[in-house]
Amino acid sequence: MMVPPAVGLGIDIRVLAEQEGMSARIAATAVGHYTDADAVLAFARDVDVITFDHEHVPQDVLKQLVGAGVPVHPGPHALAVAQDKIVMRERLTALGAPVPSWGVVRDRAELADFLEAHGGAAVVKTPRGGYDGKGVRVVRSADAADDWFAVLDEAGSGDGLLAEELVDFNRELAQSVARRPSGDAVAWALVETVQKDGVCAEVTAPAQNAGTLVAEARALAFSIAEGLDVTGVLAVELFETRDGRLLVNELAMRPHNTGHWSIDGCVTSQFEQHLRAVLDLPLGATDELAPVSVMVNVLGGPASGSMLDVYPAALAAHPDVKFHYYEKASRPGRKVGHVTTTGGDAGETLARARAAAEFFSS
Amino acid sequence: MMVPPAVGLGIDIRVLAEQEGMSARIAATAVGHYTDADAVLAFARDVDVITFDHEHVPQDVLKQLVGAGVPVHPGPHALAVAQDKIVMRERLTALGAPVPSWGVVRDRAELADFLEAHGGAAVVKTPRGGYDGKGVRVVRSADAADDWFAVLDEAGSGDGLLAEELVDFNRELAQSVARRPSGDAVAWALVETVQKDGVCAEVTAPAQNAGTLVAEARALAFSIAEGLDVTGVLAVELFETRDGRLLVNELAMRPHNTGHWSIDGCVTSQFEQHLRAVLDLPLGATDELAPVSVMVNVLGGPASGSMLDVYPAALAAHPDVKFHYYEKASRPGRKVGHVTTTGGDAGETLARARAAAEFFSS
């Protein structure tokens, strides 16, 4: 999704992809794995700046890039925080950002203690490699994470799991900002997100009836971006608690699903802004193009065939909806695309976006 | 500029380009010349539909494609009208479309007669191969087209030149429509265009104070698209005469410079719509995203370097402007990019777009 704004701005984008035929293939210029330092370094020789569409590039690869004089945005020190959920909690706590009550648990006994101290329920997370709800589990008994403890024991690293209080939230919000290496930063509208099974399902921009949370979320995201020296787009996923406080749930240091609405709903999309930011170009205006934008993910995709097969019916029914298809085969729960539409009323706009996405459900 | 919407919709776009390193290279999949039937046919074996970003593909190549069973949009019969300005005038006249008074002149004597009948001035055009003012000349004496007559004589084809009355117009307008093979068609807003030296320089959408011309232009463009069986985008360039009539100046059967404002100013851009139309997919809404959109071409480009070199200053000064750069080297008069911005007032928006484009002038 960075290709369209790169074409628009006339920026030559090159993609290192793990294999031919991935959804990034339209601009793929090299095939190689992001854990293969030689492949990444060879690819980097030809470019002005390196950025990422996920946070899993190993630190030693990142550091070799920096050592070779390649500008890397976000940098290794920032990405380290997004790569490990325990490090993230430590750094956010040190920055004074509001987070759920948390602790590191290394065995069943420590988890039992955490559960007892937090009303008998906790969210347990593997520190690394999780996404879209993977590596996240709500537990209500001390033996419910035995399988993960066993894996840690086998590794013998002494690492633990992250345990967090189960937050009683009113709704989930997300605040994206973009920051240049020079320090300039801009924010998009605070948005409301709805997760289903740990996966982002719907986003409404701006979040309705958010009152003073709008300014709070913006200040919080800016302070995190600056505190962690994030360059490029930073998405801050937030809980709005029942008593009206914000708590930081997760961070993503890249254009994020909760910001896809900006492609069709903003003067400058998160993908164009990310390109500008990592190239240290002046950032674009983040004004909304309509009173309300709604994004609904297409999860799973049509039972047979691809979204393209359903286009004749879906596009005819919804001429005012923007359809995005990632050219991925249908698979239950997989994000294969999204739809966005804009309108004057949040409820009406959401209903229209849902109806459009419904065409692609299995 | 068809690549971004193709990425968005998940449509696999392939490009036959004349050489490596052209501005279409981001998606270039084959190198070959559009006059080389073998190259075009080989390229076509792998695609579902063929379309064009100019009208100069020879009829025999087009007909071989159709003969090989390849869907071609717009089709050879429609493109034939866009390829020859005399054929265009004949067909428009037959359709009852309002056009400037015109005639075919084969020598100096015929041009003298035409000048005498039209107040001593005429616009003379070579029927084929012209664009951006090339092959168009205002003449006020019968010997002013001798060089072109000499070329025609040498070819010995008996062809003539197109002579048209020099229209005393109030302003120039353009009306774009898109039409599917099945016949469905949609129109964008009527726009006002300003030409400099025969090249489109500025577009304001919608045309201000156009009154009943809005409906007239729309009906006219639809009737031309249907009458000529155009598929894809059709741009109709119009004169608004001093006495308030519309006259058809030129036709373009492709996304056209006068429609570039739609990329940032409409729910569905002309490039996305062209893809939908040639694939016979339902057409998207053409609603404007703001009261006014203005596009200003970047002609020539920076005296040294490329638009990218000027981005730091230009983007900083105009965070709300969308910059488009075609990755072409600067050259006097050459279209190397365009800027678009939206606003509430035509004058203010035009001033802002002009100021942004000014950063790139030599």
Describe this structure in words.
The structure is a homodimer of 362-residue chains. Chain A has three domains: 80 residues, Rossmann fold (3-Layer(aba) Sandwich), CATH 3.40.50; 65 residues, ATP-grasp fold, A domain (Dna Ligase, domain 1, 2-Layer Sandwich), CATH 3.30.1490; 190 residues, D-amino Acid Aminotransferase, Chain A, domain 1 (2-Layer Sandwich). In chain A, 32% of the residues lie in helices and 25% in strands. The first copy, chain A, is globular and about 60 Å long. By secondary structure, chain A is of the alpha+beta class. In chain A, a hairpin with a 4-residue loop joins strand 11 and strand 12. In chain A, strands 7, 8, 9, 10, 11, 12, 13, 14 and 15 form a nine-stranded antiparallel β-sheet that branches. Chain A contains twelve helices and 15 strands. The model of chain A has no long low-confidence stretch (mean pLDDT 93).
